[in-house]
Each structure stands twice: as structure tokens, then as C-alpha cells.
Amino acid sequence: MTETAARQKDIMVMIVGLQLSIIGAAIDELIFLLAVGPLFTFAVYTNELRRR
Could you point out which of 3, 5, 28, 50 has its C-alpha 20 to 30 Å from the C-alpha of 34? Predict the structure, then answer.
């Protein structure tokens, strides 16, 4: 392998790793939203019931 080919491969690996970490962060955020969303809705709903 020449120097430039190795460097290109390293850059590709870095870009793929970065994309995977971004996707992982997005999935983490999605799971967090899925966990908190119903709780938030439930809190607002009970608050509305209490207000009446």
C-alpha cells in the first residue's frame, strides 16, 4: 500500500466513525424522547385534570 492510499483509507475510516457516532447520538436522543414523551404527556394531562 502506498502512503497516499493508506492516508485515504485512514480518512475514510475516520469519516465512517464520525458518522456512526452521530447516528448513535441521534438514536440515543430518540430513545430519550421516547422515554420522556409519555411521561411529559402524562404530567400535562394530570395537571389539566387537577385544574378542573
Answer: 50
